[in-house]
């Protein structure tokens, strides 16, 4: 029997979120929830949906992996000439979304992205798996290619070319550091009366908590 999309639903009953228990610091609250997602064996707990906007105002999304939370900045790595890299070069505003289905939780973060230092990007690249380094060097990320065979041939050619040599980070590949300007923590609840708490930065460096309607 064919299932109608409109009939697919579930009740969220696994938790609740109150301002009595949530951390005053959104970064510490994020770390707590991320650790719980890892402990609960979520698939790809560090996966985050990254949204950028073109100069024409057109949004686009994709999923990348969080690779660090350093000095209250969220770090991910990419090809700077990719679609997101080119859009961020023109418009640095960005949003990140984490979705953890097993825990019935989401976190949404808005902020501003800037390129990481060469030192940060070099350090991360040096610790990548060998084949991932090769892939980063040969892939014209987001560009149209004729076939998968084309990219595989480029991969094999680069492997032979660099055999026995140190693989250096290409200049067009590196990290972005996102400085948040808003957090929203979302916990699924019964009857679609979800818990939503946002954090807004204050001039004194603290964060104001506010409950949002579901």
Automatic annotation (TrEMBL):
Top EC class, one word: oxidoreductase
Domain spans labelled Pyridoxine 5'-phosphate oxidase dimerisation C-terminal: 173-214
MF terms in GO: FMN binding; pyridoxamine phosphate oxidase activity
Cofactor comment: Binds 1 FMN per subunit.
Pathway(s) per entry: Cofactor metabolism; pyridoxal 5'-phosphate salvage; pyridoxal 5'-phosphate from pyridoxamine 5'-phosphate: step 1/1; Cofactor metabolism; pyridoxal 5'-phosphate salvage; pyridoxal 5'-phosphate from pyridoxine 5'-phosphate: step 1/1
UniProt-listed Gene3D superfamilies: Electron Transport, Fmn-binding Protein, Chain A (2.30.110.10)
Family matches, as HAMAP family: PdxH
The protein's name in its UniProt record: Pyridoxine/pyridoxamine 5'-phosphate oxidase
Biological classification of the source: Bacteria, Pseudomonadati, Bacteroidota, Bacteroidia, Bacteroidales
């Amino acid at each position: 029997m064919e299932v109608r999309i409109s009939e697919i639903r579930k009740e969220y009953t696994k938790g609740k979120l109150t301002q009595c228990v949530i951390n005053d610091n959104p970064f510490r609250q994020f770390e707590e929830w991320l650790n719980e997602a890892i402990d609960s064996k979520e698939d790809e707990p560090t996966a985050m949906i990254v949204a950028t906007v073109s100069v024409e105002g057109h949004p686009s999304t994709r999923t990348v992996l969080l690779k660090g939370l350093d000095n209250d900045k969220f770090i991910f790595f990419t090809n700077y000439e990719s679609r997101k890299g080119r859009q961020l070069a023109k418009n640095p505003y960005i949003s990140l979304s984490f979705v953890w289905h097993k825990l019935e939780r989401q976190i949404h973060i808005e902020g501003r992205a800037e390129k990481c230092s060469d030192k940060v990007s070099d350090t991360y690249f040096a610790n990548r798996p060998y084949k991932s380094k090769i892939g980063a060097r040969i892939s014209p990320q987001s560009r149209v290619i004729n076939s998968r065979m084309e990219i595989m041939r480029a991969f094999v050619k680069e492997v032979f070319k660099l055999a026995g040599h140190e693989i250096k980070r290409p200049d067009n590949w590196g990290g972005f550091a996102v400085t948040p300007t808003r957090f929203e923590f979302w916990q699924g609840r019964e009857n679609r009366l979800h818990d939503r708490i946002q954090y807004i930065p204050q001039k004194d460096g603290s964060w104001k908590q506010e409950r949002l309607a579901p």
